[in-house]
Amino acid sequence: MSRKRLTERFPFLLPLRKWQRKLFFYTKMRFDGNIYAREQIKERLPFEVFRAVSPMINRNSGYDIKYQYNKAHNLKVAAGKLDRLIIKPGETFSFCLAVKNADRQTPYRDGLNLSGGKISGSYGGGLCQMSNVLYWLFLHSSLTVTERHGHSVEAFPPASESEVKGVDATVSEGWFDLKVKNNTDSVYQITLSFGGETMAACLRGERPEEWEYEIYNPSVEYFRRKERIMCRAEVNRRKRKGEGGWEEARMYQNICEIGYKLPENILSKIKGGKNE
To answer: Would you indicate the residue range of the signal peptide (predicted)?
Structure first.
């Protein structure tokens, strides 16, 4: 039996623990030598680097639909601090720092959040959809990812079977952040817009992107680990300039637990496989 954390034995200490973690989190950033992107400008930079459209409402989540609409609200609140934010050469973008106090005037609502391996409604839940989308944009640019954390559990099925696995980015203020550094000599900009039940995110630049990028899974494997079903996905990226040849690069291996029922054809293979 695993030993319980102090905050699990004494829940009243949890707010103090969160305050402590946030204090250390931002204090460390003040002295880490990075210059963090903070400026939002009215103008949109002229060139589109990469664009992604993401549905905000998942009607197959298995949970009360109100949490989906609350998530959409939370995404719009956070977007107030992210839309038209620029990342200058030499600057670092921090998701947590960028959206810090976004709810000062308009409070977040309870959205679905994964905590302690369980899905529940919590204040500000659902913001990981924003960090997921931004990470996907950054992967299609010359920005350098310096911090990214995958979810320990993939809680909901993908919107499409062709969706690349292992390219999510969880954030938790005080614990996990998404960061990229602009090591180029060009300015980048995040823009966000909303229409109906979708969110459109775009990474723009002051000049055209030199490289074209593709992110893909050379392999995806499902397996058992004790009573859990896991997914191991290799994530690769390739790039090319103009009509030149592709340059291949292995990025990382992503391993997470699957928190939803897989199709029978996949489950049958897992049942016949070894338990790691």
So the answer is: none
